[in-house]
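Structure in, sequence out. Go:
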């Protein structure tokens, strides 16, 4: 019984570690390179379904993103 409980707990921990949660960052854009924004020295990849028209270095934005496999993927940009 103990082995079963430990195995279930281990699987649950592994699954929880892979779950991406949304986070936000607010700051000035320091660089725009294609669909990658740099804010506070961190790169954020922007998928095609998120509008970044008119964004340029110096603009202050709030970015909602998730991190998976060390890639910050943007879901929303607010000016």
């Amino acid at each position: 019984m103990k082995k079963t409980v430990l195995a279930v707990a281990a699987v649950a921990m592994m699954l929880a570690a892979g779950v991406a949660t949304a986070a936000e960052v607010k700051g000035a854009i320091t660089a725009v390179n294609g669909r990658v924004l740099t804010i506070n020295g961190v790169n954020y990849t922007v998928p095609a379904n998120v509008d970044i028209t008119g964004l340029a270095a110096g603009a202050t934005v709030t970015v909602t993103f998730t991190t998976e496999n060390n890639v910050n993927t943007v879901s929303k940009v607010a000016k």
